[in-house]
Amino acid sequence: MHAPTRARFLIPFLALILVSGAAPARAQQSPPPTQPASTQSQPAQPTPPTQSTPEQPASQAYTLPPAILAKAITLTRLRAILAFGGTAWTILVLLLVLAWRWPAALRNWAERITPGKWRQGLLFLPPAIIFLTVVSLPFDIYSQHIQRAYGLSVQSWPSWTLDQLKGLALSIVVMTPLLLLLFWIIRKSPRKWWLWFWLCTLPIIVFAVFISPIWIEPMFNHFSPLQQSDPALTVRLEQLAHHAGLDIPPSRMFLMKASEKVTGLNAYVTGIGASKRIVVWDNTIKKLPTNEILFVVGHEMGHYVLHHIYKALAFTALVLVVLLWLAYVCVGWLICRFQSRWQIRSMDDWAALAVLLLVFTCFSFLFSPITNSFSRWEEHQADVFGQEAIHSLVPDPQVTAQKAFVALGSTYLEAPNPNPLVKFWLYSHPSISERANFAAHYDPWLPGRHPRYFQK
């Protein structure tokens, strides 16, 4: 939860550059954007782990009291409706605006004012971004309503609105030159634009990951050195980093004042190179024991040690080039098929932006199971690393990790047994049930077993 939700129309198209580009730094336990937390109830108590196998039912390691369970099931359904409904709404709106020829009308207006292509783009793109942001507001507002209703968000509506305006301004500032570049490349190379633009995006993705913790995240949240607020925890985290083989000095450990806006628990790694850092939410420090915080941060350190940032960057680049090629094929066909109906002349027509967004929305949705499967694979590896990293630093790594997952699941009201299709399509992390069950029974230091990332 670094920045407020962007317009759903901007996320499918080139969000792979701005959002997915920062995905390697995703938080270990971040819920879906619409996932609200419990009201002020206490986290459910975990079942003590037994000497059974990981194939045992996950509910043995993660359970919720009946009243909270009913809320979790309802909210899980709401989250799925918001996720799938948001995509359907995006597609519907894009089809309607194309049928009503609004993109063509906006293009005609820009052409009447100036003959210059660049100036036309400067006139066309910001209003288009603003319009699409406004169209997405019903889902954004309802999502925030749910978070407030169930106690996940404590942010006031004026503060939330200010964050939305910041996000809109950021979208205009970043997306306008990026789209200008895209259409310039399309005009210069109509057949290979997808390849040249992909090559241009690669350094942009890396740059976005680098600058995000320095310039972007502080626009929405307050950060301070962790050593100033909790020197004891900083010492423990230094020990953990040394044990994990990482050199992360206290100067790169930060406290985020999340309690000003949310009640959830979180910690994450972010940045790359000189901007690399560990961030712990103040809610996490208030609500989790130190040993469980060590596991959460150990998981995050695993993302660095296992080179997940670079693997995710490579995976993002691979997905992006496929999507851009599909866009080249499908957008060209759609414009030829509906040229007269939509009044879109060619691929380099500013009005073709709506068609590009439509194609990216559809294919991004279809690619979701692939990208989320990759993410779940990385997250499971980091879970294993985190549990192995705290071995010898906490009395019982199995119980510590299980309790951390139970606290996270009950805080965010994740149902113990989510729908398999929803999990397959939407979950960027394994379910809390799977993670808690694995943690409760994973002990590679038993005779005949071997740790995956640490030697005995």
What is the overall shape?
Answer: elongated
Mean pLDDT: 86
Tally of helical segments: 15
Biggest sheet strand order reads: 1-2-4-3
**Main sheet properties:** 4 strands, mixed
Number of strands: 4
Gyration radius, rounded: 23 Å
Category by helix and strand content: mainly alpha
Q: Approximately how much beta-strand content do the residues carry? A: under 5%
Return the domain count. 1
Summarize the structure.
With 456 residues, the protein is mainly α. The protein is built from 15 helices and 4 strands.
Give a verbal description of the structure.
It is a single chain. The protein has 456 residues and is mostly helical. It has one domain. It is built from 15 helices and four strands. A four-stranded mixed β-sheet has the order 1-2-4-3. Strand 3 and strand 4 form a beta hairpin. The two termini are 36 Å apart. The N terminus is likely disordered.
